[in-house]
Amino acid sequence: MTMAPLAKHIDITAFDAIDRNALPEDGGPDFNRLIFERSPYLLQHASNPVDWHPWGDRAFIRARSEDKPIFLSIGYSTCHWCHVMAHESFADPAVAAVLARDFVAIKVDREERPDVDAAYMTACQMMTGSGGWPLTVLLTPDRRPFFAATYLPRESRGGLPGLIALLEQVAVLWRTQRPLLLDVGERTSAAILDLEQHRGAPTALDDRSLRQALSIWRDTFDTRHAGFGGAPKFPTPHALSLLWRLGERLKTPDAAQMAGATLLAIRRGGIYDQIGFGLHRYAVDASWTVPHFEKMLYDQALFILAALDGFQATGDPAFAAMARDTVEYLLRDLHTDRGAFCCGEDADSEGVEGTFYLWTPEQVRAALPRELAELACRAYGIGSEGNFEGKNIPTHAVTPAELAVIYGVTEEELVRQLEQARRALLAHRAGRTRPHRDDKVLTGWNGLAAGAVARAGALLGEPEWIAAAAETFAFLQTALVDQHGRLQRSWRRGTAAIPGFAEDYAWLTWGLTELHQARQETKALEQALRWNEEALRLFADGEGDLWECGLDAEAVLGRGRTTVDGAMPAAGSVLALNLLRLGDLTGIERLPAAGERLLRTRLGRLGSHPEAHAQLLIALDYALGPRQQVVVSVTATPSQADGFLHELRRRFLPRALILVTDGADEALDRLTTLTVGRRAREGHPCAWLCSGQSCQLPATNAGELGRQLETMSGRFTPATPRETPATGGE
Fold this sequence. Notes:
Elements: H1 40-44, E1 52-54, H2 57-66, E2 70-75, H3 80-90, H4 93-102, E3 104-109, H5 114-128, E4 135-139, E5 145-149, H6 163-176, H7 178-197, H8 208-220, H9 237-250, H10 253-268, E6 282-283, E7 291-292, E8 295-296, H11 297-314, H12 317-334, E9 344-345, E10 348-349, E11 352-353, H13 361-367, H14 370-380, H15 400-407, H16 411-429, E12 437-438, E13 441-442, H17 443-460, H18 463-479, E14 488-492, E15 495-499, H19 502-519, H20 522-539, H21 571-586, H22 590-603, H23 614-624, E16 628-633, H24 642-649, E17 656-661, H25 666-671, E18 686-691, E19 694-695, H26 702-712
Parallel strand pairs: 1-3, 2-3, 16-17
Antiparallel strand pairs: 2-4, 4-5, 6-7, 8-9, 9-12, 10-11, 13-14, 14-15, 16-18, 18-19
Helix pairs in contact: 4-6, 6-7, 9-10, 9-11, 9-23, 10-11, 11-12, 11-17, 13-14, 14-16, 15-16, 17-18, 17-19, 18-19, 19-20, 19-21, 20-21, 21-22, 21-23, 22-23, 24-26
């Protein structure tokens, strides 16, 4: 996987100091139009000689007036192959000249415009059978795609056509055989519209698709390295979260074993940053050793959730530790001074992929005393031959227990020494040139990340994490809401832009629900209900399903309807779970009814790949129940609920929800029917365990509540004792 060195990345922060009012509308001799954008990815291309346009009417009007096709390039700022193509082609005056002569060029940040990306990625997959980034698409002036590819080199090599030769050939076809290109564009656009309009027959809510997905994962599980299939391997943590649920529901230990083994293999491998923590995007090999080094916000959040599920399901502190480590990375390296989270970090630094993360034995010895250097090299597998282009990606090569025997110390002492070494290596690494950090804030990704941090804070007894999550949600609901109350997609450097998509509304609602469960503040539940209603208003299609784009937003080739999970789970699957949970929390019957209708509609489209819809199946598992609501009534301070909360949080209860009331919260009583009439008895706190239409007698202590949980359903058994307290709350 040798990569050619790239030109040093442009320091996009310097662009923020430029007086854009002093520039002509086309950017001037040193900059193209992208200089007026805020996206880090677009700014990375603002000094290209290519005459770039951002996505917008102006580009298409120009294409029509000049009778030229569109050259559309889609990527994101932390994408390695986007950098390669930029260095090889978009920085080249010869490529720029061909584009200027025969095309109108548009550059799109896929993270800001998932609608544009999804439409043309679908086109690429239809035309080529695959997809990826950078995405290269040629369009007619009315936005219809007639050619699509991913990375293209400047000159033909390795079976890939050269970009210049391709552009020149297409330019000739545009002049001489245009009806052929127009026909391809027409048919492709029609196929995309047909695909989003297609509906399977509504399906009954039963566990057949859950069992089918489990069967597929059994067949594809890598018994040697864990994970599924061969190289490359993607973590897909939401699939692991589903496997924990399938193990609990179906009483099949192998489902939980596959989930646990995969999480542990990832945490031990090079795909996880052993020195600074955090998950890299994917592994290029089957053994999780060599990663694609970029780090994305959503991967961290989903990994935290899967690890927390594992901790509750097994009581194994190793899962709690991996959640803790990943939260530490989020709050240290992706958290902004505004309280929000950045999108991610690049794979490249100093023009080469992975440089920031690699070590030689000599570098370790320069950073540590001799004894600690020897320990670190042995523990992390750092040797003279290396495991990546002569250098080393740290892995957990030897377990602490094995090292303790080798060094003749207790495992506790060995772990202490290794942590000392790790921290010293982290401090030493901080002196290196860091990869570029994409510092824009995306609403949906932040809703997911903050919700994961809130859940981790509640389960692992870290109230400051819950406070950090609350700060994120406060920022999102002020800085990313326009004057009309419309949620925006993206924020950077004081400016919010682009009407939010279904993904943004769904994950913001989900995250606020998690914040409510962690902190039990009525305001969070109230906000979750508000954004959920807005999501239904903007995205519901009137037939039980929903669109990706709002009724007030631009439709690219349609309003989009994504059902398959990508790196981010499908928005409709998240919304289905939101409807079910909010209905259970409030007693508003139309909410779970809408959630079940959405589930039935989308389950009809699973086809032969239910495993590609893990988030939808998580919502199905919730819908199938049994579902519990626990109302805890206190008389004085919220801390009176701590014993009950600990009893609940130490168990794996993926379909249970909690409400804490002090009897005087009128706002809560207006939001939910569950708390009405439920008051503490004779000055003592108590808890009501409800499922369906029935409730147990109030439990007056945590032990009694635990026994009720066990009696109500044989599924709910306490986890084994753990090392980390889970007191939750503040």
